[in-house]
Amino acid sequence: MHKIGILGAGLISRSHAESIRSLDNAVLTAVADIREEAGQRFADEYGCAYYQDADELLKQADVEVVIIALPTFLHGKYVELCAQYGKHVLCEKPVEMTVEATQRMLDQVKEAGIIFMVGQVVRFWSGYTEIKELYESGELGQVHMAFASRCSTLPDWGNEWLLHPEKGAGAICDMHVHDVDFLRDLFGEIDSVYCLANKDHTGCWNHAMSSISFKSGEKAVAEAAFTMSDGYPFTMFFKAAGTKGTVEFTYKAGYNIGERDASTSELRLYQKNRQPVIRKLEQHDPYANQLRYFLSCVDAGEQPARVPHQENLEVIRAIAAIRESAETGEILTLTS
């Protein structure tokens, strides 16, 4: 039985706690949050111990694995702390705010010898997993162009740091990182990026359109937005047109990604001389799928092949280049 602690008692922590609850080989034993009321309420709801200080949790609680669900700018500090205590870590995305901070984190993880994975949950999400299977099986052929979109209203559930230009950087980091990561997983190394974006009153680029070219020859456009009007549901969309087929995926949740119970999800596949295939997708909990895989890596003592450390670094490098392109208006080639 894997004993798990969570750092942070915010919105995304509930998705992780529910995923732990759904597995028969995991138990949530502790949570830490500097906000005593929020942390204690979370602990009471999920039947675990509460600590106000993360260091005290790591010293005193019976935990083997730690899920870091803290603001992005704190990830490096707490991954390092977990590494010092020898705890395996599943860390929320984006893994860090800069390439340099990400490299430091990965160096610390390697030195400590812990199993570490970034929570790029889209790699485990129904719809996206089917798209990857279609592409890798050759059913789409060579993809001419892909389009990925992730849009919602401006979040207002207490994550003030998310809309700080340096601590969270808004949609261009928090939302864009999902699709940049999935496209990197699908098509391989990124060659160049160009971004058109709108900076709003928060000082963040909260609506961005990025064109991405891959070394494999594929091209894509990715959209991320926190600018939708009131009532607009959290929406994900993906389309890829290839020499053998076109796939289209649509997902709509509630006001935020945590409101998945009433979501609608559909995948359509179009191929020459065939009737279109329309699938209403069953939404298995992607956070449970992600955690199940991560714990299998812990059991095997192996770093996660499905979310490689080097790709984490490449994705943050791409996000940094996209942010620079938004500022300068230039096409930027990525260098390793």
TrEMBL record:
Source organism superkingdom: Bacteria
InterPro entries, per the entry: Gfo/Idh/MocA-like_OxRdtase_N (IPR000683), Gfo/Idh/MocA_Oxidoreductases (IPR051450), GFO_IDH_MocA-like_dom (IPR055170), NAD(P)-bd_dom_sf (IPR036291)
Coiled coil (UniProt feature): none
Domain GFO/IDH/MocA-like oxidoreductase per the UniProt entry, residue ranges: 128-248
GO molecular function, one term: nucleotide binding
Pfam family for this entry, one: GFO_IDH_MocA_C3
Residues in Gfo/Idh/MocA-like oxidoreductase N-terminal domain copies: 3-119
UniProt name for this protein: Oxidoreductase
